[in-house]
From TrEMBL:
It comes from the Bacteria. It is found in: Cell membrane; Endomembrane system; Membrane. One of its GO terms (cellular component) is plasma membrane. It catalyses: a quinone + NADH + 5 H(+)(in) = a quinol + NAD(+) + 4 H(+)(out). The keyword Membrane applies. Belongs to the complex I subunit 2 family. InterPro entries: NADH-Q_OxRdtase_suN/2, ND/Mrp_TM. Residues 146-449 form the NADH:quinone oxidoreductase/Mrp antiporter transmembrane domain. Pfam families: Proton_antipo_M (PF00361). It is an enzyme of class 7 (translocase). It is a multi-pass membrane protein. This is NADH-quinone oxidoreductase subunit N.
Length: 531
C-alpha cells in the first residue's frame, strides 16, 4: 500500500468516528452513573447506614440539575451523522433544558418525599428504590434531547421499565402488585402499537432522524401515503399513554392508589413530562407535513381527556370517603387534557403555541408535587387519605393548610393561585388563536366542573376537626361514649412532621408564590425553550 493510500484510508476511518459532547449529555449521564453507584454500594453498606444511599441520590440529582447551568445557551448537539453534522441524535436546545429541569427537579422533590417511606415500619428496600428512581429519571432526562425515533423509544422504555418495579415495590401488598401489573400490561400494549407505527414511518422514509423524516414525508409516493399516515397515528399512541390521555388513561387511578405515595407523585409529574415532550417532538419536528392527521386527533383527545378526568373526579368527590390520591389521579388526567390543547393548536397555528404547553407543565409540576407532599404528610397518621382526614389541618398546622389550599387553587385556576390562572388563560388563548373555538368552549366547561371538587377539598382544610362521635356515625351506630372519645383529633394527631416532607412543601410553595408574583416569566421562559 502506498503512503497516499494509507493516508486516505486513515482519513476515511477517522471520518466514521463520532465526537461526543460530554457536557451536553452530562445531566442524564450523571444521573445514570449515580444510579449504578447506589446499586453497587447497596451490596456493601450495612443496614444501619442505608440512609446514606438516599443522601447520595439526592446529591446526585442536585448535581445533575447544576450541570444544566453550563449548557444553558441551548446550542449543543452530539452523536451527529458524519455525512451531515446538522442531523444529530442528541440535541441540548432550550426545549431540552426546560424539560430536563422539570424532570430532574421533580425527581429531586420525589426523593425528599421518599426519605420517610424508606425509614418507616413498612419501609421499602432502600437500594432497589433509589436505583429504580434514578434510572427512570435518567431515561426521562434523555427523552427530550432525543432527535431520532430509536433514541426516543429507548429513552421512553428506560423511563418506564423502572417505574413498573417502583409501583410494585410494596412487598406483600396486593394493591401494589395489582397496580404494577395493570401499569405493565397496558404500557406493553401501547409500546407495541407505537413500535408498529415507527416501523411504518421507517418503511416510508428510510430514516429514523426526526428532521429527515419531516423532509421525506413531504415527498412520499402516493402508494405509501396511507402507510405513512397510519405510522404517524400509531406512533402517537405510546406517548399518549405516558401522558395519560384518554382513552389510554385507565391505568392511572389504580396505579396511583396502589403505588407508594412518592412514586405516585413522581408518575403524576415526570411520567407526564415524558409523554408530552415525546408528543411534541414527533408531531412538531417529525410530522409537520401530516398535521392534518394528528392535529384533529390530538384536539379530540384533549377534549375527551379533560372531560373524562373531571367527570370522574366529580364522582369521586360525591362521597366523603373518597381517596385524596385517587382524586389527584383523576385530576392529573384532566390536567393532561389541558396540556394537549396547545399541541393540537400547533397543527393549525404553528410551533409558537407549544410554549403554552411548556408553561402549563411547569406550573402543574410545582403545585401537583406540593399537593402530593401534603398528602404524604397526612398519610403518616391517616393511611386511607380520605376527605375527612384533612379536617382540622388548618387548626393543627395552619401553614401547611394554607399551602395545600394554595396548591388546589392553582390547579383550579383561581386567585391567589395566579400562576394557575395565568397558565389556563394561556392555554385557552392558544386554542382561540388556532381557530379551535369548540375546544376552547369544552375547556371552559371543564374548568367550571373542576372548581367544585377543588373548592370542596379546600373548604375541608379549614373546617373544625372531626370528633370521634362524628367518625363513628359514618361507620354506623355504636354504644355512646363520653369524655376523651368526643374530643376533636387533628389529621396529624400531634405527631412531628419529617423535615424532608416539610422541605418539599416549603420549596413548592415558594416556587408557586414566586411564579404567581411574576407569571409572565413562565411564558417567556417557555417561549425561549422552543426549538
Amino acid at each position: 500500500m502506498t503512503v497516499a493510500a494509507a493516508q486516505g484510508a486513515a482519513a476515511g476511518a477517522a471520518s466514521l468516528v463520532q465526537s461526543v459532547d460530554w457536557l451536553a449529555i452530562a445531566p442524564p449521564a450523571l444521573t445514570a452513573v449515580v444510579a449504578l453507584t447506589v446499586l453497587v454500594a447497596d451490596l456493601f453498606v450495612p443496614e444501619r447506614r442505608k440512609p446514606l444511599l438516599g443522601v447520595l441520590s439526592v446529591a446526585g440529582l442536585a448535581a445533575a440539575l447544576l450541570l444544566l447551568i453550563p449548557i444553558r445557551a441551548g446550542d449543543r448537539s452530539t452523536f451527529c451523522l458524519t455525512s451531515d453534522a446538522d442531523v444529530c441524535s442528541y440535541t441540548a436546545d432550550h426545549f431540552t433544558l426546560v424539560i430536563q429541569l422539570l424532570v430532574l427537579g421533580g425527581a429531586l422533590l420525589t426523593a425528599l418525599l421518599s426519605v420517610t417511606e424508606l425509614s418507616g415500619p413498612k419501609r421499602l428496600p432502600a437500594g432497589e428504590f433509589w436505583f429504580l428512581l434514578l434510572s427512570s429519571a435518567a431515561g426521562a432526562a434523555l427523552l427530550p434531547a432525543a432527535r431520532d425515533l430509536a433514541t426516543l423509544v429507548v429513552a421512553l422504555e428506560v423511563a418506564t421499565l423502572p417505574a413498573f418495579a417502583l409501583v410494585g415495590l410494596k412487598r406483600g401488598d396486593r394493591l401494589s402488585s395489582e397496580a404494577a401489573l395493570k401499569f405493565f400490561l397496558s404500557s406493553v400494549a401501547a409500546t407495541a402499537v407505537m413500535l408498529l407505527g415507527v416501523s411504518f414511518v421507517y418503511a416510508t422514509t428510510g430514516t429514523l432522524h426526526l428532521t429527515e423524516i419531516a423532509t421525506r414525508l413531504d415527498d412520499v409516493p402516493g402508494a405509501l401515503e396511507t402507510l405513512a399516515s397510519a405510522g404517524v397515528a400509531l406512533t402517537l399512541v405510546g406517548f399518549a399513554f405516558k401522558a395519560a390521555a384518554a382513552p389510554f388513561h385507565f391505568w392511572v387511578p389504580d396505579t396511583y392508589v396502589g403505588a407508594p405515595l412518592p412514586v405516585a407523585a413522581y408518575l403524576s409529574v415526570v411520567s407526564k413530562a415524558v409523554g408530552f415532550s415525546g408528543l411534541i417532538l414527533v408531531t412538531v419536528i417529525a410530522f409537520p407535513s401530516h398535521s392534518d392527521v394528528w392535529g384533529p386527533v390530538v384536539a379530540v383527545l384533549a377534549a375527551l381527556t379533560m372531560t373524562v378526568g373531571n367527570v370522574a373526579a366529580l364522582r369521586q368527590s360525591a362521597t366523603r370517603a373518597w381517596s385524596a390520591v385517587r382524586l389527584l389521579a383523576w385530576s392529573s388526567v384532566a390536567q393532561a387534557g389541558y396540556l394537549l390543547v396547545p399541541i393540537a393548536a400547533a397543527a393549525y397555528a404553528g410551533t409558537d403555541q407549544i410554549g403554552s404547553t411548556v408553561a402549563y407543565a411547569l406550573m402543574y409540576a410545582v403545585v401537583n408535587l406540593g399537593a402530593f407532599a401534603v398528602a404524604a404528610l397526612v398519610a403518616r397518621t391517616k393511611p386511607l387519605n380520605r376527605l375527612a382526614d384533612y379536617r382540622g389541618l388548618a387548626s393543627e398546622r395552619p401553614l401547611v393548610a394554607l399551602a395545600m389550599g394554595f396548591f388546589l387553587l392553582c390547579l383550579a385556576g383561581l386567585p391567589p393561585g395566579v400562576v394557575g390562572l395565568f397558565a389556563k388563560v394561556t392555554v385557552f388563548s392558544s386554542a382561540v388563536d388556532a381557530g379551535l373555538g369548540w375546544l376552547a368552549v369544552v375547556m371552559s366547561v371543564n374548568v367550571v366542573i373542576a372548581l367544585y371538587y377543588y373548592l370542596q377539598w379546600t373548604a375541608v382544610l379549614f373546617r373544625a376537626p372531626e370528633t370521634a362521635e362524628e367518625g363513628a356515625s359514618e361507620a354506623g351506630p355504636t354504644p355512646p361514649t363520653a369524655g376523651p372519645a368526643s374530643r376533636p383529633a387533628g389529621p396529624l394527631a400531634g405527631r412531628p412532621a419529617p423535615a424532608p416532607i416539610l422541605a418539599a412543601i416549603g420549596l413548592t410553595t415558594a416556587m408557586g408564590i414566586a411564579l404567581s408574583g411574576a407569571p409572565q416569566l413562565v411564558l417567556r421562559f417557555a417561549a425561549e425553550s422552543l426549538f
